[in-house]
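quick one: NAP bound model?
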Amino acid sequence: MQYRNLGKSGLKVSALSFGSWVTFHKQVDSKLAERMFGMCLDAGVNFFDNAEGYERGMSESVMGEALKSLGRSRDSYCVSSKVFFGANDNPLPTQMGLSRKHVTEACNQALQRLQVDYLDLYFCHRADPDTPIEETVWAMHNLITQGKILYWGTSEWTAEEIKEAYEFALANNLTPPTMEQPQYNLLDRQRFEVEYNPIFEKYKMGTTTWSPLASGALTGKYLEGVPDGSRASLKGYEWLRKHMIESDRGQERMNRVSKYIEITKKYNLDPTKLAIAWCLLNKNVSTVILGASDMTQLENNLKSLDYLKNFDDADLTEALRKV
Ligand SMILES: NC(=O)c1ccc[n+]([C@@H]2O[C@H](COP(=O)([O-])OP(=O)(O)OC[C@H]3O[C@@H](n4cnc5c(N)ncnc54)[C@H](OP(=O)(O)O)[C@@H]3O)[C@@H](O)[C@H]2O)c1
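yep, here:
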């Protein structure tokens, strides 16, 4: 495993980490999660990602049970949660967003569900247009001083919003955000590579990037239809199937995936490992969060670092740039 500093913090996160969106509770129970964590930790993974909004908080409960029964020392791994969407289908106005109240309550609830005394990383899952950024910065700073979280960050905020939070924290001697959690993969590059450049340069933000396989699309498995049991086939995720495949946007992306799969065939490479390793070429990536619904996928994906050597081939790297 490689380890990278989370931005300019002293925290070293494993280049590959493991997340639970869609999978935990829906496809992965606590017994399987325990085996998955064992495999991850043995491979050197030290960060596990979660959120109040994943399966209405139940993803955190599965993770908490699994980590507890695995019994590894708390100082050997990091866990996260995220606040914004709320932990039930129809949250009340006080049960969602980034108000001081909800940020504080959601943290306390995540600690209970995850069965930990503190969160290593705590993210604002989206920006909240109805709450002043100052209030959220204060709420996060207070959670740090209370010892309930160690680092706070944002997810899918605009560069401008991150700048505002950072500058307010600096001007008031509060703790600024340490990391962003953006999507980043071969199909989704613009925000990470262009919009965020100033915040990387000025603030040295760390990043925990999501969906390295674009929800599985970059494995190539959706090119002949939607396989049974795959993410795009799941009940409750019809919106995702439309977004990934059936919409005009989805069709345009599937054409890009076809092009990508042709390249991997030409070089005789596994598209899954190549797509994951590709994310790590960018020095502003601190950790790539993997997703997997079974042990075989996880075992394969954890070997992606072996693929970094393929980028010594300038022709391959250039071909991928054009996907
Ligand atoms: N902050 C945010 O807004 C945000 C948003 C999304 C995700 N995230 C975080 O990022 C993590 C990773 O995102 P992600 O799950 O979307 O990652 P991903 O790598 O793009 O997709 C993972 C999914 O692809 C399929 N897959 C993975 N490996 C495979 C393989 N070897 N062969 C065939 N299929 C394979 C599996 O789905 P199936 O087997 O079900 O098809 C798996 O669950 C999440 O768990 C979450 O922690 C954050």
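The chain has one domain: 3-214+276-315.
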